[in-house]
């Protein structure tokens, strides 16, 4: 007989647990998302109110205006324009993504390539590029005086990269010949001077 008394209690306890579980399960439910072609979907999409990404402003300038023949000769008389140049270095590819001008110089003796480029990214993108440079490189005060000129240098996979930010300009100079910040100093200074002119 005691079992008969316990059985209803167990059933009612089990029923109470099942009801409680159902309540908790329903509490986690939400309305299903509207179909993708539903016009009300944009109104409830939290990302719909975000501003569209800024388009890069093309910066078209001749390579010999960034570095003149005299600038190149002063740096290294063995350098000349790289025939059929295509951007390959990461930073210079970034300049290309920002609709900038990219250029290549070839060392006629060693065959080493020096890549350089300048872009004028939109404000948000420029700030992002500065932050990336600050996090992934070492500051180089000899490239210019902050905040007017911010300079950075890093070496990755035996490729030296100088990044310089001056006003609206993002300047990148890269080469396997750069092992320390001073190796790119003359080219950076010449590009900054030519941009100012």
Description:
- It is a single chain.
- A seven-stranded antiparallel β-sheet has the order 1-2-3-7-6-5-4, with helices on both faces.
- The N terminus is likely disordered.
- The chain has about 200 residues and is α+β, with helices and mostly antiparallel strands.
- It is globular and about 45 Å long.
- It contains seven helices and seven strands, in the order H-H-H-H-E-H-E-E-H-E-E-E-E-H.
- The longest helix is centred in the N-terminal third of the chain and has 26 residues.
- A hairpin with a 5-residue loop joins strand 2 and strand 3.
What is this entry, summarized?
With 197 residues, the protein is α+β, with helices and mostly antiparallel strands.
Integer-rounded radius of gyration: 30 Å
Structural class: alpha+beta
Unreliable segments of 5+ consecutive residues: 1-36, 38-49
Q: pLDDT average, as an integer?
A: 82
- Give the tally of β-strands: 7
Helix content: 25-40%
In angstroms, what separates the terminal alpha carbons? Answer: 104 Å
Largest sheet: 7 strands, antiparallel
Strand arrangement in the largest pleated sheet: 1-2-3-7-6-5-4
Order of helices and strands: HHHHEHEEHEEEEH
- Strand percentage lies at 15-25%
Q: Can you tell me the overall shape? A: globular
**How many individual helices?**
7
């Amino acid at each position: 007989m005691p079992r008969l008394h316990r059985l209803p209690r167990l059933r009612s306890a089990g029923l109470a647990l099942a009801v409680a579980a159902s309540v908790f399960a329903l509490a986690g439910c939400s309305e299903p998302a509207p179909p993708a072609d539903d016009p009300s979907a944009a109104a409830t999409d939290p990302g719909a109110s975000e501003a569209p990404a800024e388009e890069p402003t093309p910066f078209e300038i001749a390579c010999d205006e960034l570095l003149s023949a005299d600038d190149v000769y002063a740096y290294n008389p063995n350098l000349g324009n790289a025939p059929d140049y295509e951007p390959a270095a990461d930073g210079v590819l970034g300049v290309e993504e920002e609709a900038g001008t990219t250029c290549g110089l070839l060392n006629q003796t060693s065959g080493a390539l020096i890549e350089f480029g300048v872009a004028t990214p939109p404000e948000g993108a420029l700030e992002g590029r500065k932050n990336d440079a600050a996090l992934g490189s070492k500051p180089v005060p000899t490239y210019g005086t902050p905040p007017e000129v911010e300079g950075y240098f890093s070496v990755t996979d035996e490729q030296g990269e100088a990044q310089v930010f001056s006003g609206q300009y993002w300047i990148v100079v890269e080469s396997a010949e750069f092992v320390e910040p001073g190796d790119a100093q003359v080219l950076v200074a010449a590009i900054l001077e030519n941009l100012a002119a």
